[in-house]
Amino acid sequence: MLTTQEELLSFLEGQTVVIPHLGEIFRAWPSAIHPERAALTTAVNERLEKIVPEKANGLRKADFALFACCWWPNAELSKLRILAYLAIWLFLWDDEIDQTSGRLSDSFEAAQHWRTATVETVTYYLGLGEEPQGLSAQSKLINSFSDIGEALCTHYSRGKPTLQGALPERNFINL
Question: Would you say the pTM of this structure is higher than 0.90?
Answer without folding.
Answer: no
